[in-house]
Amino acid sequence: MKAVIYGAVAVVAAAVGFGIYRYALAPHAPVAPVEQAAGPASEPATPEPAAIPANLPDFSLQDREGNLRSIRSWQGKSMIVNFWATWCAPCRREIPLLKEIQKTQGGNGFQVVGVAVDFREDVLKYAGEIGIDYPILIGEQDGLDAVTSFGMGSLGFPFTVFTDNQGRIVLTHLGELTQPQSVIMIDAVNRVNRGELTPDAARAVAAGQLEEIKAPEA
Known about the structure:
Elements: H1 2-14, E1 22-24, E2 60-62, E3 68-70, E4 78-84, H2 89-105, E5 110-117, H3 120-130, E6 136-139, H4 141-148, E7 159-163, E8 169-174, H5 179-193, H6 199-212
Parallel strand pairs: 4-5, 5-6
Antiparallel strand pairs: 1-8, 2-3, 4-7, 7-8
């Protein structure tokens, strides 16, 4: 059974290149289908990427105690939802940063939740060993279903979602999250919460700032 699940998860990760380090700022609205010109010479339309939903999808997975819990349990919080797995090296590397964010930003209305797409016994063992102190939801196939609820046919890990305190998705990030990136994204969410920016405007501002801090290519 484990081999089957590992294979399914590996396909999801490989679809975008496991270990990619880049950010993804997705639009709110679904993309309209592209109409093709009639006639035999017309080329097939390139599929448009699916859109991230405007609001955090409601899914439920087991928590560490084995209780079914909704991702929307933290009402009024700005959510940082991190999809990860124990076998994912970039996921493991960013966990100390996520712990620090929860420690420093928890009092400012932010809540980190890890969604482990992995085997329950592996997650509990690893979380205990490294001292993950923020909530974790755990699932195998239902964890994969939670990932696809974001409107993406396939994703790699880690994948992190930032919402405002109304549950609206402000930013998404594909790949290992760094401290400078997290500062920009948290600031963007705070500006949305204060009413200074709409989620769309916050995405545009953050995109420019994230581009500025990208490491120069060799």
